[in-house]
Design a protein that fits this description.
Length: 391
């Protein structure tokens, strides 16, 4: 029998009894005490920028001189990433929605890379007498950085606080195709196309670009259930393509669209998902395109990758190409999105049968408990993680 990290395969670390054996979907009600809202984190002043970037790149040996090359994105905005304030607003919106429904579930917020850290949130939960927690990560898709790393963050928090024997933490499923997440994008595309139509621009004169964060190709191929062939780009790209198709259909449009990537980093020799949003924009005039609608499909809020890579760089590229550019909103605190997040929590509270869970693509509803080997980090390998079968 193979042993991973001292545990037999099939074990789900720190899970509630309903999830510990690793069913794909947990259809047994669980009485949770609180919600842990897990965010990426971001600097809130110029002095925070380099320490924050050290946290983001920890273990990679990147010198401060190279980090400063990235820091100018944050320096441009006064050293402040909007992501922490956005999570404060999301936390407040979730609390209001829970209160309106009469649901007694406190929301405790913690980050991966900046204060308040996730270990502090876990310690706060324990100090307040909570023992059974449901994790809600601010990321919708399947990949290492958007799913498994959050699962590792929770495991790290239990390790740092020495509370692994006292707390049980499950996690809501990835919600890329949940109506609450998709609805704001549908509205954004519909509104953008209507605005362009009012300006006399329609049909083939428009291109819709669905933008998401690029990731290493090797990591993309390992995203999702390792027993399934999702095609080029793994589950990560397949999920985005499927959601983009839903958005265009629900928006009632046959305008041409494309999935594009942004924010790549790493050495040039390392393959990352392409094409880059700026490269695609540069080539649109030759195809007779007059306007581009940029949809930040991979993002839940207007954080730095949206403000800099789309609102600054991609917009400048469009202007240089002589194109009209409209960037549609992210979900943020859109009422449908907030309701959807609470619905995802309540699926686990109520043990909602799989067939009754909303999902707008053939890939959903996604797993409550991640499959073995899901979203491996090629560089670092497997580390302890909650809410998934080992490894």
């Amino acid at each position: 029998m193979t042993i991973t990290n001292g545990e037999a395969p099939g074990y789900v670390r720190a899970a509630t009894p309903a999830a510990s054996a690793g069913p794909e979907h947990v259809e047994e009600p669980v009485a949770y005490d609180a919600i842990i809202l897990a965010g990426f984190g971001g600097p809130e002043g110029q002095d925070d920028v380099i320490p924050f970037l050290r946290n983001v790149t920890r273990g990679r040996g990147i010198p401060d001189e190279r980090l400063e090359e990235v820091a100018h994105h944050y320096r441009h905005f006064g050293g402040v990433s909007p992501i922490n304030e956005q999570n404060r607003q999301l936390k407040a919106a979730l609390e209001a929605e829970l209160a309106a429904r009469g649901i007694d579930l406190p929301v405790i917020w913690g980050n991966r890379n900046w204060d308040p850290y996730l270990a502090e949130a876990v310690q706060e939960a324990h100090d307040r007498g909570f023992r059974t927690l449901i994790g809600l990560a601010t990321s919708a898709y399947s990949s290492f950085s958007s799913c498994r790393q959050y699962r590792e963050d929770f495991a790290n928090a239990l390790e740092q606080t020495s509370l692994g024997d006292e707390l049980r933490i499950d996690k809501v499923r990835q919600f890329f195709d949940h109506p609450g997440f998709v609805t704001p994008f549908v509205e954004g595309v519909r509104d953008a196309l209507a605005e362009l139509a009012d300006r006399g621009i329609t049909g083939s004169e428009i291109r819709v670009l669905f933008a998401t964060h690029s990731i290493p190709t090797a990591d993309a191929l390992r995203s999702g259930d390792r027993t399934v062939d999702y095609g080029e780009g793994g589950a990560y790209a397949a999920q985005h393509r499927a959601v983009a198709e839903v958005v265009m259909r629900e928006a009632g449009s046959d305008v041409a669209w494309e999935l594009v990537y942004q924010s790549r980093s790493g050495p040039p020799t390392q393959p990352w998902l392409e094409p880059d949003v700026n490269d695609v924009i540069e080539g649109l005039p030759a195809a007779g395109v007059k306007a581009v609608v940029v949809v930040p499909l991979g993002f839940v809020s207007d954080h730095m990758e949206v403000l800099w890579d789309l609102d600054t760089e991609a917009t400048e590229t469009a202007e240089e190409a002589g194109l009209i550019a409209i960037r549609t909103p992210t979900p943020g605190t859109h009422p449908a999105y907030v309701r959807g997040l609470v619905d995802l929590v309540m699926e686990r509270v109520n043990g909602t049968p799989t067939g009754e869970r909303p999902a707008l693509t053939a890939y959903g509803p996604w797993f409550d408990v991640c499959r073995p080997g899901c979203c491996e980090n090629v560089r670092a390998g497997f580390k302890p993680a909650i809410a998934g079968l080992q490894p």
